[in-house]
Amino acid sequence: MQAISGGRVLLPEIHQQLGIPADYPQTCGMPEHRECRSLVPVGNDILGRPALLDAETALAWHRMQMAAATDGLTLQLVSAYRSVDYQRQLIQRKLDRGLAIEAILQVNAAPGFSEHHSGRALDLGCPDYQYLEESFELSPAFAWLQQHAGEFGFRLSFPRNNPFGVLYEPWHWYFLGKEVPGAIA
Ligand SMILES: [Zn+2]
Questions:
Q1: Ligand 1 centre from 72 Cα, in Å?
Q2: What is the pLDDT, as a whole number, of residue 30?
Q3: Could you tell me the distance, in angstroms and rounded to a whole number, from the CA of residue 167 to the centre of ligand 1?
Q4: 44 CA → ligand 1 middle, Å
Q5: Domain residue extents for the chain
Q6: For 131-168, how does the pLDDT look when each residue is reduced to its tens digit (9 = 90+)?
Q7: Architecture of the domain delimited by 36-81+119-175
Q8: How far apart are CA 71 and CA 111, in angstroms?
Q9: How many CB atoms lie within 10 A of CB 44?
Q10: Ligand 1 mean position to 165 CA, how many Å?
């Protein structure tokens, strides 16, 4: 793609191409996330695509997945690391389908601002529940995550009525790297 200079992706140009407001970095309330440089493979996601995570996050994810399995629950990886360019393409495809950028930004962070760039964010699912749907909150897997994800250093990024203007995402968990007492807080 063209908006790369000296290996550094130029976010303002990408945002302009997508029609993202120039003040988005100031108004979104979310920090910029650099692309992870310590990615390790963690098997395939639910669509069979090779998934990558930050090395430390990968260990915590495997531990959490095994602990859930011990409790009789299957946690599935729906989406893990995403590059800035992947995020750009994701948004571009939605624009091409006729969605408005304002509506898209309620469910997708602008390129450069997705926690998925850091390799520390996981979209999780479980059998018998629609992936990336709010109804995941009714699943036994979500109940388990609410209780235990904090023990593995994960917290829910976008609870209901979060201050970032992002819709409620019960499936999106972020690795803070230490035990989180109130993972849902
Ligand atoms: Zn996510």
A1: 24
A2: 92
A3: 11
A4: 16
A5: 36-81+119-175
A6: 999 999 999 999 999 999 999 999 999 999 998 888 99
A7: 2-Layer Sandwich (3.30)
A8: 37
A9: 11
A10: 15
